[in-house]
Design goal:
Radius of gyration: 33 Å
Strand order of the largest sheet: 6-5-4-7-8
Low-confidence stretches: none
Structural class: alpha/beta
Number of strands: 15
Amino acid sequence: MKSVFQNMIAAALGISEKQIGQTLTLLNDGATIPFISRYQKEMTGGPDEVQIEAIQTHFDKLNETAKRKETILSTIQEQGKLTPELQKRIEGTWDNTVLEDIYLPYKPKRKTRAEAARQKGLEPLAILLMLQREPHPELRAADFVKGDVKDENDALKGARDIIAEQVSEDERARNTLRSAFARQVMLTAKVVKGKEEEVAKYRDYFDYAEPLKRCSSHRLLAIRRAEAEGFLKVSISPDDEESTERLERLFVRSNNACGKQMAEAVQDAYKRLLKPSIETEFAAQSKERADEEAIRVFAENLRQLLFASPLGQKRVMGIDPGFRTGCKVVCLDAQGNLLHNENIYPHPPVNKPQEAFSKLQKMIEAYKIEAVAIGNGTASRETEDFLKRQTFNREVQVFIVSEQGASIYSASKIARDEFPEYDVTVRGAVSIARRLMDPLAELVKIDPKSIGVGQYQHDVDQTKLKKSLDQTVENCVNLVGVNLNTASSHLLTYISGLGPQLAQNIVNYRAENGAFASRKELMKVPRMGAKAFEQCAGFLRIPEAKNPLDNTAVHPESYHIVEQMAKDLGCSVAELIANKEMRLKIQPERYLSPTVGMPTLKDILQELEKPGRDPRGPIRIFEFDKNIRTINDLRIGMELPGIVGNITNFGAFVDIGIKENGLIHLSQLAQRFVSDPNEIVSIHQHVRVKILSVDTDRKRIQLTMIGVEQDN
């Protein structure tokens, strides 16, 4: 079975069967996607994380289909209807739609009109009508008037019910209707009467019609949400007359009384059984495609967000700004530990700017603060202005940081465990400060759905969404790597080969024994076996380790290769890392072996060039236009600086320093055609935009980047 799966996956993904087989073997042995992608290139041929995930997804789907086939075969066998031909057809089918069509006539049903007619003994009459030879079916129907059958019309009606069910279960009929749906089906939506004022946000869909195949993911999800909330009536329908005619051509073969009975049965089958069934099927398929697109967009946004530039290990002040309740201020050391917290009131109504400045001055001096992170919520711009008007005794950089999800974190169990003695306001300010230092390490503590970079994330399949986002977080964490001696247990959970228990054991060991001196010491951690060590070691960094390779992505299994390179050049490993001229003398082909190929050697040489390299770029300070405070300050034609906050498949949302974000529609990102906004912009990118239109009633701002010169 596995070889059959490999063949089908290879055909679907364009990857060789051998690569797929080796990858599946590693996955089945418990290897993680990041580990396979990074350290098993010789064995797999080098598929990346996305390809490995696709291999796993396809394999899981085929497994599900195989289990479904077992259930179907067993059910038909129990009915005594499983012929060798039918068994062969089921076993050879891997298309779920075809499989369910084959099974449909044998599927146990609740009591249907057709079943009731069969129990009345009307099946022979149905067969007679289907043969379409009898010139006077009403006379033959008289023979069936007995028991629960009242008269000839009742008999014919029951016979038609049996025919209608058979037509609806006929594969040709179903495929004919699917063809009509695929070609011409329209998605229509109409507002429910009396709901017009209640749901102005769905105004665009009050009287809406579009071919389903052209309906974008975001529109479909919006329409389906409005339908679920009871605001829209939605239907998916082809041309009824043409569809019925196509079905009649399949089943009506005579222009006689039987033929008319057949035509009536076909029309009933279409309206009552077939059309609703295929409509449900197409609705589910279109929703699944919309979900996949929305999940893809969300995962890409999350990846970009997690790769946001870190400030690094600096002493940071975090400020959660506010007016009436004041600004909560925290001071953190370079490792992110909380040193101090208090409130300041620089804004109305309390309005104590001098006292606020004095407190800030003392904290900046006492804790040697190097940078300030201000949350971008209420009073953010006013707090930034207040700080920038002050002159402190030491130079501090001021950054605006997204606080999306900070309130979720501050009320979470993770935050309570970290800061049991502090309230949510302190925890929120700490999160803001830490997001500046290392966005990845802090954001992994928050449910990705709360970070604010999704597109209808609550409307998509939640199981698929969680799986995709968890894998995205895992890939990002392992690509960057983490400091073994400072990482939280939550961050360590995402490291390849570690789960919650092992991650906590590492933190407990660290607390009892002090900092890890080497990767090898990980083997002393309770429940750390050889397999877990193999999976995790290469992604854990020890900056102050005696062996410099412990602070690189070189796997411990490959240390001997680097040591041999250094020995051959007559230097130490540390000297080899420090000396570019020395590294240029390395001839990688000399170190090839049955288990070590050129992909691994290239990775090693790249790592020696930039040991422990962080794929995230350097952080940049950003300033909004000082004259723009509210939507009322905007004028058409203005050019403003902004930060990309969210990307959807229809455009990018940009923070321009006011409460409402502006939208750059796909068509306004560049002069050329753009199919994916990620071609032009990325999350947290600094851009310059021009105001196209402002709708103050609906709080909508349309922006463009066309013809606007970008700073970078």
